[in-house]
Design a protein that fits this description.
Low-confidence stretches: none
Strand content: 15-25%
Structural class: alpha/beta
Number of strands: 14
Distance between the termini: 48 Å
Strand order of the largest sheet: 8-7-6-9-11-10
Helix content: 40-55%
Radius of gyration: 26 Å
CATH topology of the largest domain: Hypothetical protein af1432
Number of domains: 3
Number of helices: 19
Length: 503
């Protein structure tokens, strides 16, 4: 592979609750051409118990799959790869321990994304396969552990929801012994309908002109309906009823034999059918078209947007700032100062561009909590950032931002990074210094009081130099920085403020 080909090759890894997918594409003439698709039925949700513990057999199967994916990813630039984990990863009890091995096997970081972020990416992927972008559409994606429901227009989602029901989880919960009876079916469907009732009115008021389904379950159902001559294309309400009746006649999962049903989809079809039937009833659907695209295609296009300065996270942060009425002039002062500090020490402290981006966004958002209360506002700011729906951000990114914001002032506990994967501990430590340093220099909220400075950073050791005249005129700031030496020492950073000099 030439350097040009490498630079234009992109990969998306979708680690679903039922199957893992790898999609590799190359950008040619402004379009993405698929080079490779790999799918393995890992069924990670089936190995997860009620306490969030993953059994060893499933863990080994997952790690083996990731190692094979990792071999295919070799040679593709790190910045051109995006891997995400969905519902089952959100439920893992000790996510970071699993990710340490998983990321090593895959050879790149894995982002855990929330349900609504998953829904946004699915909609983006499905929209790439729809001719034209006019008309409002309902998109339904039934995964292994969750189902995403989106109404959107063009490339913009209007309603996003994620329900914690999928083909694996429903099969496991209601058909664990394999028996398929009307009683079990009604019980499973009632459970799903109770959650759908909460959003069906809102969704129907928003409305849509067409309905599109994605994911393995819906594609499998469509294939079966066509093989049985129940529908010419897609899934119709009548065809779905015939398929459900056929399942009752089989009586047991092991007895199901249907043309178009693969061995891999066979064990979890019944759970997916429950979800699909409930969606047809709740939204009064007559027909569902089927999209070949889903989350992984959405990941690729979202990745390209990030690389081409069309990052949805920028829009999210701007909306957040407007919602909570932050002091724009002050956060810009802090952001400019923090990024200048980061620029000077990034090479010596091994910071990557994404860490710089996260620092900038944290500076943008660090005062949002003032809308709640001035007292301990950093805690309120961190809570809002960690617990809000933030399109474009992964769970780890939100935790990273929340940690930066929570500890940008006052004391920092020794275990401030414990909720993050180990790969993010050092970047958090260094970017936290940059934000705290900037907040001290900008405390007076006066542009003229902010000095020029020179930072040197290497191996957890940072020193700063200021012009002598400025230091003599700002003894309070120098005292704050000297106090900062002791606070930073507790998190493993050696910070020093040598005698001022002319710089």
């Amino acid at each position: 592979m030439s350097e040009t080909e490498r630079a234009n090759t992109y990969a998306a890894v979708d680690l679903g609750s039922n199957s893992f997918h790898l999609l590799v594409s190359r950008r040619e003439h402004g379009e993405l051409r698929v080079l490779d698709r790999i799918k393995e039925m890992v069924r990670i949700a089936g190995g997860l118990d009620d306490h969030g513990q993953l059994d060893q057999e499933t863990m080994d199967r997952a790690h083996g799959c990731l190692a094979r994916f990792g071999q295919r990813l070799r040679g593709i630039p790190d910045e051109n790869i995006r891997a995400v984990g969905t519902q089952t990863f959100r439920r893992l009890r000790n996510t970071n321990a699993f990710l340490m091995v998983a990321e090593t096997a895959l050879g790149c970081s894995i982002d855990i994304i929330g349900g609504r972020e998953e829904a946004r990416l699915i909609y983006l992927g499905v929209s790439q396969g729809v001719s034209g972008h006019d008309g409002r559409r309902l998109v339904i994606d039934i995964g292994g552990g969750s189902t995403e429901l989106v109404i959107g227009e063009g490339l913009s989602p209007l309603e996003l929801e994620s329900l914690q029901y999928g083909c694996v989880s429903l099969t496991r919960q209601f058909f664990a012994n394999g028996k398929i009876t009307p009683k079990k079916w009604r019980k499973a469907k009632r459970s799903v309908m109770s959650d759908l009732q909460e959003l069906r009115i809102r969704y129907r008021q928003t409305g849509w002109e067409s309905a599109v389904g994605s994911s393995g379950t819906i594609r499998a159902v469509a294939e079966i309906c066509q093989q049985q001559n129940w529908a010419e294309r897609g899934v119709t309400a009548d065809a779905l009823e015939k398929l459900v009746a056929a399942m009752f006649n089989f009586g047991h999962v092991e007895n199901v034999t249907l043309a178009g049903l693969s061995e891999r989809r066979h064990p979890v079809l019944i759970g997916g059918l429950v979800m699909l039937s409930a969606c047809f009833e709740a939204f009064e659907l007559d027909r569902l078209e089927v999209s070949p695209f889903a989350l992984r295609e959405g990941l690729l296009h979202d990745l390209l947007g990030r690389l081409e300065n069309r990052d949805p996270r920028d829009n999210t942060v701007q909306a957040f700032k407007a919602r909570y009425g932050v002091d724009t002039a002050q956060v810009n002062r802090v952001k400019t100062c923090a990024l200048a500090a980061c620029e000077q020490i990034a090479d010596g402290m091994f910071l990557r561009p994404i860490h710089r981006d996260l620092l900038g966004w944290a500076a943008d958002l660090h005062e949002t909590g003032l809308s709640v209360s001035h007292s301990h506002f950093q805690k309120h700011s961190a809570y809002l950032v960690e617990n809000s729906d933030m399109p474009g951000f992964s769970t780890q990114e939100q935790l990273f931002l929340a940690a930066l914001i929570r500890y940008h002032r006052r004391a920092v506990p020794g275990r401030f990074a414990e909720r993050l994967p180990p790969r993010l501990h050092e970047p958090l430590r260094v970017t936290l210094f940059c934000l705290r340093f900037a907040c001290i220099l900008c405390r007076s909220r006066d542009d003229s009081a902010i000095p020029t400075f020179k930072l040197n950073g290497l191996d957890r050791s940072i020193s700063v130099q200021f012009p002598s005249e400025w230091a003599e005129q700002h003894p309070l700031t120098i005292a704050d920085l000297e106090l900062e030496m002791d606070l930073l020492r507790k998190i493993g950073l050696q910070f020093s403020v040598p005698a001022p000099e002319d710089i």
